[in-house]
Amino acid sequence: MSQEERYDVSRRVAVVGALTNTVLAILKLLFGWLGHSQSLIADGVHSLSDLLTDALVLFSARHAQEAPDEEHPYGHGRFETIGTLVLGGFLLTVGLGIVWDAGERLFSPEQLLKPEPITLFVAAFSILANEGLFFYTRHFANRINSNLLRANAWHHRTDSVSSVVVLVGIGGTMLGLPYLDAIAAVLVGLMILKIGWDLGWTASQELADAGLEKESISEIRDVIGTISGVKSVHMLRTRKLGGHAMADVHVQVDPWLSVSEGHRIAEVVQYGLIDGVDVLEDVT
C-alpha cells in the first residue's frame, strides 16, 4: 500500500473519530455539568483529548506520506512518531489534572457532587460509541500497519473502559455511596496517565532508534535463510520509522563467487526481505 493510500485511510478514520468524539465530548460535559457528575465531566475532558488525537493522526499521517527529500533522505515516517510522543505528553497532563481535582474533592466532602439519572444514560451511550470506534479504528490500523492509528484504537478502548468506570461510579453514588463518583474520576485519570506513559515511552524508544522486536528479527533471519547462496548473516540492524522499518544487513557468501554473483545474491536478499517481511520498507 502506497503512502498516499495510507494517508487517505488515516484521514477517513480520523474524521469519523473526530465527529464521534465531538458529539461525546459535548454530551458528557453538558450533562456532566447539568447532572452534577464529576466523573462524567472528567470523561468529557478525556473525549476532548481524543479530538487532539484525531488532529495529530491527520497531521502526522499527512506529513509521513511525503516522499524523501534532500532534508529528509530517509522519508518523513518519524512525523508519526513525533505525533505519538506529543499525544502521550498531552494525555499525561490531562490525566494528572483530573486526578488532582478529584483527589481534592475526596478530601473535601462538601465539594462532592450528587449525579442525576440522565448521566447514567450518557455514560452507557459513550461505552457503545467508543467500542464501535475501537473496532473500526483497529481494523484500518492493521490494514495499513499504522502504530499511531493502532494507538488511537486502544485509546478508544480505554475511553470505553473509563465510561464503564463512570457508569459504576455514578450508579454507586446514586445508591448512597457519595465518594464513588469522585473515585471513578480518579480511576479515569489514572487510566489516562497509563496510556499517556505507554505512548510516550514507545515513541521515545523509536526516536532513540530502538530495533524491531525479537519476533521480527527472527522473521528477517528466517527469510534470509531461505535464499540460496547466503552462508550466514554477518550483521543485522533495524530501526523503526513510523509504521515501517529499515534494515541494514551484511551477508556472507562463498568466497570464490564473482563480484557480480555476490551482488546478485545481495539484491535477492534485499527484495526478498521487502516482499517477505511486511514491516520492512527499505533494506541495505
List keywords for this structure.
2 domains, mainly alpha, elongated, 3-stranded mixed sheet, Alpha-Beta Plaits, 284 residues, Alpha-lytic protease prodomain-like, 71% helix
How would you portray this structure in words?
This protein is mostly helical and 284 residues long. The chain has two domains: 3-207, Cation efflux protein transmembrane domain (Alpha-lytic protease prodomain-like, Up-down Bundle), CATH 1.20.1510; 214-283, Cation efflux protein, cytoplasmic domain (Alpha-Beta Plaits). 71% of the residues lie in helices and 9% in strands. It is built from eight helices and three strands. The chain has helices at residues 3-34, 38-64, 78-106, 118-144, 147-174, 180-207, 214-225, 259-276; strands spanning 230-241, 244-253, 280-283. Strands 1-2-3 form a three-stranded mixed β-sheet. A hairpin with a 2-residue loop joins strand 1 and strand 2 (244-253). It is elongated, with a radius of gyration of 24 Å. It starts with a helix and ends with a strand. 41% of the residues are buried. The mean pLDDT is 82.
Class of the largest domain in CATH? Mainly Alpha
The H-and-E topology, N to C, reads as HHHHHHHEEHE
The count of helical stretches stands at: 8
Q: What is the straight-line distance between the termini?
A: 21 Å
CATH architecture title of the largest domain: Up-down Bundle
Largest sheet: 3 strands, mixed
The number of distinct β-strands equals 3
Quick check: average pLDDT?
A: 82
What is the share of helical residues?
over 70%
How do the strands line up in the largest sheet? 1-2-3
Full CATH superfamily name of the largest domain:
Cation efflux protein transmembrane domain
Count up the domains.
2
Shape: elongated
